[in-house]
Please model this.
Amino acid sequence: MQIPDWRRFMKNVEKTITGNVDPDVLEFTVGDDPVLDRELVKWDAAGTAAHVTMLSRMKMPKGVPPVVTPAEAAKVRRELAKVVKEFADGKFEIRESDQDVHMAVERRLTEALGDLGKKIHTGRSRNDQVAVDVRLHIKDQVLALEGEVAALASALCAFGKRHSMVPLVGRTHLQPAMPSSVGVWASGHAEMILDQVANLEAAYQMNDLCPLGSAAGYGVPLPLDRKLTSDLLGFKRPLHNVFGASMARGEDEAALLSALAQLMAVISRLAQDLIIFSMPEFAYFRLPREYCTGSSIMPQKYNPDVLELVRSKTATVLGLQVAALSQLHAMPGGYNRDLQDSKGLYMKGLSVTRTTLRIMAKMVEGISIDEEKLRAGFIPGVFATDAALRQVAAGVPWREAYHDVRDHLERLETEDADRAVRAKRHIGATNGLDWRMYAGRVSSLEKTVARRRSAFDSKIKALFA
Model:
């Protein structure tokens, strides 16, 4: 048996900061990280700044010099501030040989600071490094998402309030059911969208715990001050168990994708309603022309492509959620490379959802109504329940009244739709909508986002001072 000459293989390797790697292996394992990690440059720099600051304050045993001095930590932070600026200016590069943003930042610091740059990874693994980057990025993005949720809900409420008492046929099974209003329809969708903030909040809170200092999932024999690092980065507290901190990777992204999938499902139902109610057969609503596309052969066509794509993109986000959970279910405890792919899943989910929120808010702002068509939808059967309830008011038991109306549907007539809308005065009905409550919910969300944004940005900015 001929033994292969190892020197022949060594001629075809790529040198990385962690050793030599076969080019095909490097390409396969690096994947999309050089592109995806551009989203994490600022957060990796922030995590490194906090870690180096902590190293400079770490209480070493008597006679043991500090890993880095306060003056050296300040040098590193200044250089990290340059990295963030270079990235903003399009000058910072993540090379394939870097493998990821973490090694790219370390390479850049080593080029600028020599041996000092080689010290920044002390007590740290890329496992806890990427975990803190992702959590910071998710916190930043959830705040942006919540602001965009507020904008869409506000647009729906403004539309609904403007046409609050305009009659609209309420439907079940898509069939005419009972008198309703444009106000109830619009504010109902707004309320459902606002309710999704609870899921986003759960994802935010789950990601508001700091994994830094857990290293590869087993801690290190150094007196790391994990609480200091957590405080410097603006987290609520450190993730306590180092093994748990490692295993939480992927769970955080899946939690976010779950919230995004539910939000998209709610928005998709709004899109479907708008598609149906803007069809010529209904023509209740007119979509803004600039948000519709034409046909290459049929000159008369104005197609609701945006709304159709919202439905499709909802399916995409649902698929991303399933993919994220599928990655996790069979992995053993500890870090596994499978988790690398969770990064692209949640980033795509964020991009799709944020784009959808923004375009839907603009579309809702441009919708107009056709009152004549809305009123024309009120056929006699829509008033059947109201007719039965009038008998109840006269003392007839409900079930008898129900059967009497059902047995004599031919006696029903088209009634005054406006009067039917005014008649429902209880909470949340056509004449009982609390527009101040909706405005308060939107305002409260906007204020919460602004307060958190200010505190979060201040913490990150202070790291580079």
